[in-house]
Recover the amino acids of this structure.
């Protein structure tokens, strides 16, 4: 991709963002295709993170910070705090725990002592298909609550997401995971949820939180707490399967 080539030719401190109106070759996790109709906010952002920093030592956290930034971009606007936009570990943006309306993909390259991170994120703002979009949620909220919140634009939300992300990275670099986790947990869909480990008839465990490196922590009766990673695709909450690492 163009931005992948450009990122090594620009001055160090200069961030770079590409915004697509339409995307025809979007990529998802594990080689999945990400379809991007008009009305979807799509961008790729380049950031640099020093290896010897809080975040440089915990690169998997970046996808969580980006997911949180998307949710915050909407829910930090006065009046929009109760729009049911949430994060789903490890890299999805959800309407409540019901329906996906966005995702995040992070690629990192270590050059000497700097991580060059390409962050791709996409979320449905103004397209009701193929799933649901943020402006649908706002319209639904207006109907239920008698409010008159205005629809939001993709450009505005991309700009807000990047601004919030910069702030979250600053906090993380200063305070580590504990600086951002309370906010992340406030918006995540997993509180008190049960999952099965390894397979549909595997042992039941309860989701506890995420560990210092961004992996999911689960508590299994009589076994204590262990960290797990996604099963190659997204952590599948419908089937609730995860794999201990």
């Amino acid at each position: 991709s163009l931005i992948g080539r450009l990122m090594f030719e620009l001055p160090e401190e200069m961030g770079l963002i590409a915004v697509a109106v339409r995307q025809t070759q979007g990529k998802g996790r594990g080689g999945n295709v990400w379809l991007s109709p008009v009305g979807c906010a799509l961008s790729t952002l380049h950031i640099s993170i020093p290896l010897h920093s809080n975040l440089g030592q915990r690169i998997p956290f970046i996808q969580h910070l980006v997911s949180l930034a998307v949710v915050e971009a909407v829910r930090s606007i006065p009046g929009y705090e109760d729009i049911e936009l949430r994060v789903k570990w490890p890299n999805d943006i959800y309407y409540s725990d019901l329906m996906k309306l966005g995702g995040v993909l992070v690629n990192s390259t270590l050059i000497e002592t700097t991580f060059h991170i390409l962050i791709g994120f996409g979320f449905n703002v103004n397209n009701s298909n193929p799933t649901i979009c943020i402006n649908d949620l706002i319209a639904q909220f207006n109907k239920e609550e008698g409010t008159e919140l205005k629809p939001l634009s993709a450009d505005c939300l991309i700009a807000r997401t990047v601004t919030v992300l910069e702030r979250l990275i600053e906090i993380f670099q200063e305070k580590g995971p504990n600086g951002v986790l309370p906010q992340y947990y406030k918006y995540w869909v997993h509180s008190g949820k049960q999952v099965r480990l390894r397979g549909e008839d595997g042992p039941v465990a309860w989701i506890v939180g995420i560990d210092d490196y961004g992996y999911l922590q689960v508590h299994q009766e009589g076994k204590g707490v262990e960290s797990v990673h996604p099963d190659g695709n997204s952590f599948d909450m419908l089937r609730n399967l995860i794999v201990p690492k």
